[in-house]
Hints:
Layout: E1 4-9, E2 20-25, E3 33-43, H1 45-51, E4 68-76, E5 88-91, E6 120-124, E7 128-130, H2 139-143, H3 145-157, E8 167-171, H4 175-186, E9 190-195, H5 198-208, E10 212-215, H6 222-229, E11 235-240, H7 247-253, E12 254-262, H8 277-284, E13 287-290, H9 296-308, E14 315-320, H10 323-335, E15 341-345
Parallel strand pairs: 8-9, 8-11, 9-10, 11-12, 12-13, 14-15
Antiparallel strand pairs: 1-2, 3-4, 3-6, 3-15, 4-5, 5-7
Helix pairs in contact: 3-4, 3-9, 6-7, 7-8
NADP nicotinamide-adenine-dinucleotide phosphate binds near residues 151, 174, 175, 265 and 291.
Amino acid sequence: xxxxxxxxxxxxxxxxxxxxxxxxxxxxxxxxxxxxxxxxxxxxxxxxxxxxxxxxxxxxxxxxxxxxxxxxxxxxxxxxxxxxxxxxxxxxxxxxxxxxxxxxxxxxxxxxxxxxxxxxxxxxxxxxxxxxxxxxxxxxxxxxxxxxxxxxxxxxxxxxxxxxxxxxxxxxxxxxxxxxxxxxxxxxxxxxxxxxxxxxxxxxxxxxxxxxxxxxxxxxxxxxxxxxxxxxxxxxxxxxxxxxxxxxxxxxxxxxxxxxxxxxxxxxxxxxxxxxxxxxxxxxxxxxxxxxxxxxxxxxxxxxxxxxxxxxxxxxxxxxxxxxxxxxxxxxxxxxxxxxxxxxxxx
Length: 347
Ligand SMILES: NC(=O)c1ccc[n+]([C@@H]2O[C@H](COP(=O)([O-])OP(=O)(O)OC[C@H]3O[C@@H](n4cnc5c(N)ncnc54)[C@H](OP(=O)(O)O)[C@@H]3O)[C@@H](O)[C@H]2O)c1
């Protein structure tokens, strides 16, 4: 094996094109670590924010980007038990967060600490999850479980767990929402997808057959529609992707006592017209719960379900592990034309 590998870093973070290629040593795993040959990396909205210094949390200098990797173990530290060469694995978003809330917001891969945009990564075995034999998902699908997957899982099961027969509304057709849709359907929920695009909703209908679709551009008061679709009750679980610009509609759509998972901040809003979220939430007895991805134990549970149920996820496009292709993948994600995930495959 060559001792050098290709690694990508952001020496400056003003544009996606700042991504630079380096040849660096392949790390030697410490006794409690495994060395992973990365096979696929999934790109998140967060990665585009990190690249342009728009991520609202700390980013280390000269960071290796990327939080989501799936690959194969090629070397095992001498104190590691339970892993072997050849195991297919994924790595938890925050290697230090095994359970419970985050200790801080700086330990996420590809932000506060170096990420996974490399051919090889060494990681503590305690942050690594083995994929059960026979799981049908591709490396790209598996990588996609790490950030948006655990975020969706945490939203549905991290507080008041989703139960069969309840309803789930996901905003938009991006990575977090499409993963949550698959999980909600697997749980027997009534599912509602909103999108800016009828074309996207048509594709989502064909791929995943959600119960209902609403175009939030054509129907700006999508909350009233969602309440109607749930027989007047309102929605039990909403994944809030828009943020301040959509929270008023989410609270209007939520059932009395329902859970709104506060995840994204993509919607435009007028600072002069910020809703009185506290009063609105009070009126609905709603749980508004901030989500920071989730701990490794949630990735364990997610992998178990996804493997046993052989759930499949939408990968819109796979790019190659070259600087130009990765920049193109970032641009593709930022354009918002995708449904589900955009990934990089690594030779
Ligand atoms: N807190 C966390 O732990 C966490 C974890 C993951 C992601 N996030 C955040 O969640 C957001 C989504 O991330 P992602 O990786 O899933 O993004 P993504 O794959 O890029 O998906 C973005 C999608 O959001 C939809 N969208 C945009 N504006 C919207 C609006 N006003 N109302 C409803 N939907 C809207 C669009 O869907 P349509 O084109 O179909 O309308 C768009 O395609 C980002 O803000 C990201 O930073 C947070």
